[in-house]
Amino acid sequence: MSFDEADGxxxxxxxxxxxxxxxxxxxxxxxxxKLSSDELIRRSFNTDSCITLDCCCCSFxxxxxxxxxxxxxxxxxxxxxxxxxxxxxxMKSSWGWNGDTKFDELFSANSHFLLCFLANFKTCCDLSxxxxxxxxxxxxxxxxxxxxxxxxxxxxxxxxxxxxxxLVEEVRGLNLGQKLLHILYKIAAxxxxxxxxxxxxxxxxxxxxxxxxxxxxxxxxxxxxFGQSVDYSILxxxx
Length: 239
Prior knowledge:
globular; Aminopeptidase; 8-stranded mixed β-sheet; alpha+beta; 6 helices
């Protein structure tokens, strides 16, 4: 075999390995995407109902939904939280804001949601740091926070893409966001996803600081790695 033939054979094997990697990634993503909400939670948390999160001032229940399982009121509340938290950032960005487009993206058939509901208040903060959230959150019928995620193939990797993690103002600072991220890590790991990836506006300083604190770093697919100047960052971390 000549050097050229050997080199060509090596390249062919490399292509085959890459194709196999992509095929494996797609299979993992398809398998995870097909799971029902109950199956996703059962696989990671051995329960068919909900996850309980205990925070310093109150406790929450977290339930998994696909868009078809959500009530119109739940969808309206989720979109309202997103719009209130993020519309200003989108308007400031190069992307702009289109409510119809964002609604369609949010409730795409491949989407999954973690909806967080207030369960009960504590008489005082366990850490003696906060006031108990105001009585305006007394209703447990509407979500007070949510995570929107999908399973996708990104740069040949099977990944969990966190499209949104949004909290109403009254429940921020209770460590709830970090606890919701840990649910995502568990779901990602238990479904063979190699990374949790998300996009954040560079000028959204609180969000950038939050994700950095939770171990997210610039992903290999971030445009800045290719010399592009954009107003957002693509961040990732292992589950």
